[in-house]
Amino acid sequence: MTRRSPALALALAGLAAAVAFPLLATKVTWQNAAILMLMTAQLGVAWNILGGYAGQVSLGHAAFFGAGAYVSTLLSVKLGISPWLGMGAGAVVAAGLGVLVGTPCFRLKGHYFAMATIAVGEIVQAVVNGSDALGGAVGFNLPLGETGFWGFVFNRSKLPYYYIALGLLLATVGVNWIVNRSHVGYYLRAIKDEPDAARSLGVSLTRYKMIAMILSAGLTAMGGTLYAQKELFIDPGSTLSTGLSIKIALVAILGGAGTLWGPVLGAVVLTAIEEATRIAFGGTGRGTDLVVYGALLVVIAVFQPSGIMGLFTRRAPRPVPPPEPEARFP
Amino acid sequence: MTVELLLQTLLSGVLFGLVYALVAIGLTLIFGVMDIVNFAHGEFLMFGMYAAFWGFALWGLDPIVTLPLTTLLLFGVGVAVYRLVIRRITDAPMLSQIFATFGLMIFFRGLAQYLWKPDFRSVDHTIVAGKVAFAGLQFGLPQVVAALGAVATTAAVWAFLRFTRLGAALEATAADKEAAALMGIDAQKMFALAWGIGAACAGVAGALLATYYPVFPEVGSTFILVAFVLVALGGFGSVVGAFWAGILVGIVEVLGGFLWDPAYKMVLVLSLYLIVVWFRPQGLMGKA
C-alpha cells in the first residue's frame, strides 16, 4: 500500500481542490469554464474505455452523446418525465445503439473502424436533422424555470451543475478504474495490442469490445443528458456533429489514451487552450483563435505524440501485472 | 418520370461523382503510401478554390487558365505540409496522427477565415460558362468540364503510378517500406511526393470546382466526408477503387435526393458504405 500512497494523496488533493474550487472562484465565467472542463473530461474518460483500452478509435461518439441529450429531453419535454430517469433511459438507448454500431463495425480494423464510426455519427445527425418529430435542424428549447433537483434545472446558481458534473466524472473514472483492474481490462489491452494472440488464447474479441462499447456509449450518453440540462437547448449541430466526436477523442488522445487520468488532464489542457485562445483572439471574428488553437494542436501532436501522461511516465504507459513470485525451494 | 429525366439525373450524378473521386484520389494516395488519414485534405481543396478565385478577382484570369499554376502551388503546399509536420509523425501512433492532421484542418480553416473572411465568394463568369446539349439532355458546361478535367487528372495519376519508374517507386514504398528502402528508394522523398501529388489533385479539383461552386473557409468539410467514404469504399490506398466509388456515390447521391428527399441523400450514401464494408471490410478494391 505504501507504494500507492503518493498517487492516492495526489488524487485526494485533486478531489479536494475540485470540490472547493467553485466556492472560492465565485465568478460565473470561471464556474462555467470549470463545468465545461468537467463535462469534457467525463466524455474523454468515457471514450477512453473503447478508444483507449480497447484501441477501437471511435470518431462517432457524438451519436451517443446526442442520444443521451435527445432521449432525456424528449422524455421531459413531451412526457414530463424527470431528466434523471431520462439520463438512465438515454444511457440504455445509447448502449443499444452501440451494440447496433459495434456488430458490423467491430469487424473493421484501425482506420476502417474510425471511418465507419464517422459514417454512423453522420447518419444519426442527418436523420435527426431531417426529422420533425426529433426537432429537425432547429432542435429543442428546454423550459427555463427552476425546477430543483428532481427536475434537473437550476438557474439560481451554477453550483448544482458543477457538483453533478464532478460526480458524473468521478463515477465515470470509477467505472474506468474498475474496468482497468478487472480481467476485462486485461482482455481489452490484449485485444488492442495482440488481437491474434488474444483470440488464440480463447478471448472473444467481439464480446469484450462490445462490453467496452456498451460502457463507453452509456456513460457518454449520461454526459449528453447533463449537457442538455445545463444548456437547456439542444440541436444537431451542438450535440451530434462529427466535430464534437473528434473533440471527445482529442481530449483522450491529448492526455494519453489508455491511461486512467490522461483524458481528465487532456480535457483540462484542451479546454484551457480553447477558452484562452477564444478570449484572447476570438473577439475579432476573423478566425485568429482557430489559427492559434489549430497550430497548438499540431505542435502538441508533433512534440508529445504519446499525450501529456507520457511526460510523467518513463515506464510502460500502462500498468503491468505484477510478476508471479518465483518458485523457491527451501 | 421520363427516361430523359432519369438519365439526366444519373449523368449529373456521375459528373459530380468524378470530382468527388479526384479529391478522394489524393487522400487515398497519401494513405496508401503512409498509412495516414489526412483530415486536412478538404483544406487543400479549399486552397485550390481560393487560388482560382483570387486569380480571377485580382487579375481577371479564368480558373481554367490558372489551373496549371494552382496545381503547382498545391503541390508545393502538400510537400511543405509533409516536410514541416507530417515527417515528424511518420512513426507516431495512429491517434496522434489523427490529432495532428485534425489540428492542421482547424489551422487552415482559421487561416482562410483570417486572410479572406468567412464570406461566400464565387467566380462570376468563366470561359466555361453555359450549357451543353447532348442527345436531348442538358448539362452545365462547368460541370462537364470539371468532370472531364477530373477524369483526365485521375488518368494521369493512374498512368504515372502504372508506367513510370517514379510511380513504381511510389507504389513499392506503399507496398513495403523496408523492402523499397533496400532497393535504394528514398522513403522520405516518396512520402513528400505522395503529399505533393495528393494535394495537387485536390488543387485541380478545387480549381475546376471554383467555376461553378462558391468558395468559403469551411468548403472542405462538405467534400472531406464524401472523400473519406470513397477512400474506405474503394479500399484504402486504391486509386482505381476511389474512382469507381466516386461514380457510384455520385449516382446514389442524386438518386437519393431525387427519389427520396435531398436531406437524406448523405444517409443513403453512408448506409451504402456501411453495407459494403460489412461484406467487404477492405473496401471494393482494397487489398485484404
Helical run tally of chain A: 15
Oligomer: heterodimer
Helix share of residues of chain B? over 70%
Tell me the overall shape of chain A: globular
- Order of the strands making up the biggest sheet of chain B: 1-2
- Spans where pLDDT lies below 50 across 5 or more residues of chain A: 315-320, 322-330
Helix content of chain A: over 70%
Give the uncertain stretches of chain B in residue-range form: none
DSSP strand content of chain A? under 5%
Sheet of most strands of chain B: 2 strands, antiparallel
Give structural attributes:
heterodimer, A: 330 residues, mainly alpha, 15 helices, 2 strands, 72% helix, B: 288 residues, 2 domains, 3% strand, globular
Explain what you see:
The complex is a heterodimer of chains A (330) and B (288). Chain A is mostly helical and 330 residues long. Chain A has a domain at 30-241. Helices cover 72% and strands 1% of the residues of chain A. Chain A is built from 15 helices and two strands. In chain A, strands 1-2 form a two-stranded antiparallel ribbon. In chain A, helix 3 runs antiparallel to helix 4 (83-105) and helix 4 (83-105) packs antiparallel against helix 10 (205-231). Chain A starts with a helix and ends in an 18-residue tail after the last helix. The model of chain A is unreliable at 315-320 and 322-330 (pLDDT under 50). By secondary structure, chain B is an all-alpha fold. Chain B has two domains: 25-217, no CATH class; 222-288, no CATH class. Chain B has helices at residues 3-34, 41-59, 67-84, 94-116, 141-163, 165-175, 177-182, 187-209, 219-234, 239-259, 265-279; strands at 131-134, 137-140. A two-stranded antiparallel ribbon of chain B has the order 1-2. In chain B, helix 2 crosses helix 8 (187-209). The longest helix of chain B has 32 residues, at 3-34. The radius of gyration of chain B is 19 Å and the shape is globular. In chain B, 54% of the residues are buried. Classes of the chains: A mainly alpha (330), B mainly alpha (288). At the A-B interface, helix 5, helix 12 and helix 14 of A face helix 4, helix 9 and helix 11 of B.
